[in-house]
Design brief:
The protein has 78 residues and is an alpha+beta fold. The protein has one domain (9-76): Pemi-like Protein 1, Chain: D (Ribbon). It contains 4 helices and 2 strands; from the N terminus they run αββααα. It has a two-stranded antiparallel sheet with strand order 1-2. The mean pLDDT is 90.
Amino acid sequence: MSLVVRVGKKSQIVIPKKLREAIGISEGDEIIMDLEDDSIVIKPKPESYTKKLRGLYRHIWKGVDAKRYIKGERASWD
């Protein structure tokens, strides 16, 4: 979804309601703004980074015994 907004006085912009609702932000929420190439990416700041990252890439570790894997890695250090 692309919308055109105008930069106002003091370089402020208003995030249109459709976009705010689409990413789940509302008044008082904190957001993260990233510069990627020539674009500004706006995303909601997670309530907890730990919760946000929980389970990330779990499909890679499916069927792997974590304790055995770590033991093998540590053994390779010697």
